[in-house]
Amino acid sequence: MAESESSAEQRIAELRADIEEHNRRYYEEAAPAISDREYDRLYRQLVELEERYPQFATPDSPTQQVGGAPHKAFAPVTHRVPMRSLDNTYSEEEVAAFYRRMKKILPNDKIPVVVEPKVDGVAVSLLYENGRLQYAATRGDGTTGDDVTQNIRTIRSLPKRLKGDPPRILEVRGEVFMTKKGFAKLNAERSEAGLPVFANPRNSAAGSLKQLDPSITAQRPLGVIFYGTGAVEGVELAHQLELIALLKKLGLPCNERWWTADSLEGILRAIHELEKVRHDFVYETDGAVVKVDSFAQRESLGVTAKAPRWAMAFKYEAERVETRLLDILVQVGRTGVLTPVAALEPVVVSGSTVGRATLHNEEEIARKDIRIGDTVVVEKAGEVIPAIVSVRTDLRDGSEKSFRMPTKCPVCGSKVVKDEGQVAVRCVNARCPAQLKRRIEHFASRGAMDIEGLGEAMVEQLVSRGLVREVSDIYRLTSEELRALERMGEKSVANLLGAIARSKQQPLWRLLFALGVLHVGVSAARALADHFPDLDAVMAATPEQLQRIPDVGEVVGNSIAQFFREPHNREMIEKLRAAGLRLTSEPKPAAGDSKIKGTIWVITGALSQPREEIAEEIIRHGGKVSGSVSKKTNFVLAGEEAGSKLAKAKQLGVQILSEDEFRRLI
């Protein structure tokens, strides 16, 4: 393999792992770590590399997927029509290219479009049958989302029953948002209560929608805007403008303003007009959505694997301000990577005070010629983590100082290394306290071992007091040790110990992801757990054996083999084994052996274990889980106090099983 191909494969693996982690933070935790602009930059890098080196492109790449995986705490819902995301751009030239592509496909047609505000919220899909709300779901991975019906019902502006003469079936798509005033008030209340504040209205809306207790969601100032449909039966619609009129007639909230155009000049004019008024809306608007008005033309234009060819989102540039760079600090991550961070003279950007900004790496600092003491231009794209975009070199007076990455770790004093061909500088001390804290936080995170209560503040205490020196020490903590920590009463101690105990039963793929092996994301962890019978087999595998597994490849395979060659990592695994963690893969039915393969299930009522766990069991045996009962449903698993879904199943003659009957069947 040529050197350029080897480098490309490694960079593709790095980008996929990074993007997968950012997707998890964004979609599952509503806690993004980078701005939308920075995410889009990484995503485009991956697209370009996969196009240049198609031999490394795979169906599981983030470029071929929509959104994030459904969350285990909510029952899954299969969308009747897939929810696709939109291609987006910050460039008017790309808007022009988008319009030219449509004209090339439809050379003899005039192509009228509708330009709507892009609401910065959480995409949802609601199903109304005969005017009554049946369920609501998040986008999830585009095919299956989370059932958030009870939380959606708490939104006051949402009709639970449509007005007038509604169609028999209406799967309507929209965006749940938090009002700007409500967001400011909520953050003020959280700050006064000593709680962490939300990064932006989009995050707060996502967090509110994913509350397990709907009464908490009901207290949040949420709204919803609808702009599209999935499945529709009982009404014929030919244009977007007809759809908007119908939604308004039915009492569904829609965008306050929209523009029409039938030329590129008209589209750009509408985008500019929207930018002038977008701050007047009650919700955050981060761009404009351009969509073809005619549904027939949309059909002709078609879709890609991820996005429609008949729509595009244009994002406005983030607000930029100038301030002074006081210093450049260096942070150490869980894999030992040293990351420079700018300490700024505090400045207000996008409505909040900023004192820190990301600098990514030493090469980025050199490329932008950033020096300590400079006047810098800062943007807070998406109101997440601010970044320095440029330097006012014309304002230098000669006192500015260049930055050099330290040769020793700023936390533990160990030497740092920079691998050939890499930009990352790493601390090689695996027991570095900074790495340890980040590794434990990752290990306990929701997407990994899901140990609730083991967040940043708790990890800080455990590490600083020497109670946890590696992740296996988590399972040796005692109630006496925890009671001695700050803000840890009897209930908090019991809750944390309970969460730690429950984490021992997490499936093997979660443990593989939680270990923090370089380049191993959720997809690779699942592929390993599917391929090998247990962790011992993973550890014994050669790099060549690992590389042949889908979603692994050469770079990730070498990283896995290297991780398990380290004696201290093997020692840690043995301690986890002794603690009682699950190190074996979940048994899978033999091909063709499952009695429920290809069947569709609905779960309702109170059962002996959480619905999401039962849903995972059904999926593992080849079945699918839906949030509503229809003629296509094969089985309804009904527990105690089953309600309308059970009644619907009886009405349609769908087979109903008790939990005992379900167990016997599988």
Descriptive account of the structure:
By secondary structure, this protein is α+β, with helices and mostly antiparallel strands. It has five domains: 3-64, Helix hairpin bin (Helix Hairpins, Orthogonal Bundle); 76-315, 2-Layer Sandwich (D-amino Acid Aminotransferase, Chain A, domain 1), CATH 3.30.470.30; 320-405, Beta Barrel (OB fold (Dihydrolipoamide Acetyltransferase, E2P)); 433-579, Orthogonal Bundle (DNA polymerase, domain 1); 600-665, Rossmann fold, CATH 3.40.50.10190. The chain has 24 helices and 22 strands. Strands 2-11-10-3-9 form a five-stranded mixed sheet. It has a five-stranded antiparallel sheet with strand order 14-13-12-15-16. Strands 5-4-7-8 form a four-stranded antiparallel sheet. Helix 12 (433-444) packs across helix 13 (456-464) and helix 16 (508-514) packs across helix 17. The longest helix is centred in the first third of the chain and has 26 residues, at 3-28. It is globular, with a radius of gyration of 26 Å. The model is unreliable at 66-71 (pLDDT under 50).
Q: Biggest β-sheet, characterized?
A: 5 strands, mixed
CATH class descriptor of the largest domain: Alpha Beta
How many DSSP E strands?
22
Distance between the termini: 47 Å
- Could you estimate the helical fraction of the residues in percent? 25-40%
The side-by-side strand order for the widest beta sheet comes to 2-11-10-3-9
Unreliable residue stretches: 66-71
Number of domains: 5
Which range does the strand content fall in? 15-25%
The fold-level CATH name of the largest domain is D-amino Acid Aminotransferase, Chain A, domain 1
* Helix-strand makeup class: alpha+beta
Query: What's the shape?
Result: globular
Corresponding CATH architecture of the largest domain: 2-Layer Sandwich
The CATH superfamily name of the largest domain is DNA ligase/mRNA capping enzyme
How many DSSP helices? Answer: 24
Return the average pLDDT rounded to an integer.
Answer: 85
User: For the CA atoms, what is the radius of gyration?
Assistant: 26 Å
